[in-house]
């Protein structure tokens, strides 16, 4: 799995470590009698540049059968946010994995401003950024025939039982819902052969006291780290929002500027990396050369095909 804290499993702690939706999904990929070797490359705080760099190199060396590429929220929280650069990075990663015959998993995500309940002048700039990221992900998912899960729908974001105390990461129930959603889509393509993840948590949700303790310790640290980078620019963006509100122009000019930047970003990757214009497969399905192999799961990359052993299992790594 390539990505950030969502794919690392933050919010679903088991035995002192993060588990998350990818590990839950991996358990349901292989048929009975076979195992899924699992390698998680996702790292909390990762940006699109991190995914396009070290994570992608390691994923390509693994030659995965399935690869999840879910990233972008951290990019929206940086003052250096550049939708065109993010689009080119993700296009390169998807193209390189697609060239291996890898089936891609992608997801669109909710904007952090709404999840955190920020006031409108602060939330709207983040919402524009996340909408742009989601539009890029939708375009690349269509190009590369990705298995795409919609996680920005209100039915998902408004259900607080799915979310952890920080409101930005799923709790155990949420991670199970993500895993079940991907499992359903993969099963429809004949790529998931085991049982889907159970929807109900193994453990009770954190108590209010535990949630407050997390927010007062780790949560506060997260906010402070992001504030040093984002807050000054976010305040300037909020001032621009208020100025357009008061001078009767509304947010139309700001929306138009974001739309123009998105259009340029999509145009920059329209021909694909290196300018290819050949069509991409609409539905990759299981490649023929994988017949008779086990599925190797790689978080952040996906499940690679490994030769079948005498015991009908593959090594499991994590």
Secondary structure elements and their pairing?
Blueprint: E1 2-3, H1 5-8, E2 13-14, E3 17-18, H2 20-26, E4 37-38, H3 48-62, E5 66-70, H4 73-76, H5 83-99, E6 103-108, H6 112-116, H7 120-143, E7 147-150, H8 154-157, H9 172-188, H10 208-246, H11 252-268, E8 293-297, E9 304-307
Parallel strand pairs: 1-5, 4-8, 5-6, 6-7
Antiparallel strand pairs: 2-3, 8-9
Helix pairs in contact: 2-9, 3-5, 5-7, 5-11, 7-10, 7-11
| Global shape | globular
Distance between the termini: 11 Å
The number of helical segments is 11
Q: Biggest sheet, strands in spatial order?
A: 1-5-6-7
Beta-strand content: 5-15%
**Sheet with the most strands?**
4 strands, parallel
What structural class is derived from the secondary structure elements?
A: alpha/beta
Say how many strands there are.
9
Pattern of helices and strands:
EHEEHEHEHHEHHEHHHHEE
Averaged pLDDT: 82
Low-confidence stretches: 274-318
Proportion of residues in helical segments: 40-55%
Briefly say what this structure is.
This protein is of the alpha/beta class.
Detailed description of the structure:
The chain is of the alpha/beta class and 318 residues long. Helix content is 48%, strand content 10%. The protein contains 11 helices and 9 strands. A 4-stranded parallel β-sheet has the order 1-5-6-7, sandwiched between helices. It has a 3-stranded mixed β-sheet with strand order 4-8-9, with no helix packed on it. Strand 2 and strand 3 (17-18) form a beta hairpin. Helix 3 (48-62) packs parallel to helix 5, helix 5 runs parallel beside helix 7 and helix 7 (120-143) packs parallel to helix 11 (252-268). The longest helix is centred in the last third of the chain and has 39 residues, at 208-246. It is globular, with a radius of gyration of 20 Å.
């Amino acid at each position: 799995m390539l990505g950030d804290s969502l794919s690392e499993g933050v919010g679903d702690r088991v035995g002192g470590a993060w588990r998350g939706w990818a590990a839950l999904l991996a358990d349901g990929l292989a048929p009975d009698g076979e195992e899924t070797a699992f390698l998680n490359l996702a790292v909390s705080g990762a940006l699109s540049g991190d995914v396009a760099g070290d994570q992608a190199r390691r994923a390509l060396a693994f030659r995965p059968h399935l690869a999840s590429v879910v990233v972008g929220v951290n990019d929206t929280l940086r003052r250096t946010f550049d939708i065109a650069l993010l689009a080119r990075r993700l296009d390169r990663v998807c193209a390189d994995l697609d060239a291996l015959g890898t089936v891609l998993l992608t997801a669109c995500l909710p904007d952090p401003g709404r999840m955190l309940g920020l006031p409108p002048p602060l939330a709207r700039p983040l919402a524009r950024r996340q909408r742009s990221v989601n539009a890029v992900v939708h375009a690349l998912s269509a190009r590369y025939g990705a298995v795409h899960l919609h996680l920005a729908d209100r039915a998902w974001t408004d259900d607080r039982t799915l979310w952890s105390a920080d409101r930005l990461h799923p709790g155990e129930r949420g991670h199970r819902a993500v895993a079940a959603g991907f499992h359903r889509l993969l099963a429809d393509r004949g790529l998931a052969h085991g049982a889907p993840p159970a929807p109900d948590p193994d453990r009770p949700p954190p108590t209010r006291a535990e949630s407050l303790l997390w927010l007062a310790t780790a949560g506060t640290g997260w906010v402070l780290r992001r504030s040093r980078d984002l807050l000054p620019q976010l305040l300037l963006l909020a001032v621009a929002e208020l100025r357009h509100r008061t001078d009767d122009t509304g947010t139309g000019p700001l929306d138009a500027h974001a739309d123009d930047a998105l259009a340029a970003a999509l145009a920059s990757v329209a021909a694909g990396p290196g300018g290819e214009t050949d069509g991409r497969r609409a539905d990759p399905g299981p490649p023929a050369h994988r017949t008779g192999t086990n599925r190797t799961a790689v978080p952040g990359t996906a499940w690679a095909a490994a030769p079948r052993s005498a015991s009908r299992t593959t090594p499991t790594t994590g």
